[in-house]
Prior knowledge:
- The chain has helices at 4-15, 51-54, 71-78, 85-124, 128-139.
- By secondary structure, the chain is mainly alpha-helical.
- The protein has a domain at 70-144.
- Helix 4 (85-124) crosses helix 5.
Amino acid sequence: MESIPGEIAATVQAGHIRTDPDPRLDIAPATAADEKQAATIEQDDQEEIPCSVLRPTPRRRNLPPLPDLRFEQSYLHSISNADTWWKVMLITVRDQMIMPLAQGLIYNLVLNGWQYSRRNARFHGTSSGARLRRWWYGVNNWAIPSRER
């Protein structure tokens, strides 16, 4: 004889299986989807044309594809003609060290030159903004900065 828990499990599993199911009782309970309703199609004498057909949305202008701005593509293109390791190193130093430093230097010189040229033009110019500043300094009894050139 087998173990008692095994016998109980086999009895429970086999006990609820019906050998003669009744379709009225053993099917899933009724739902709203069980009722069949005939579909009716209403056709108007005047068929409406959608607004999207009458006034279509204008097409957007196609833009050109975005350029590939990744560093690796331009770097690989730069070193494609390098045939020795020192040429690769020279190109890498040029692209990674010298060019960013040169760009930063030029940008800084342009900004400093612009600030220097605008420093005295702020009070000694002939624009309406310079006249307004001179008037405001006069109202408040402030000293107008001297011209430095």
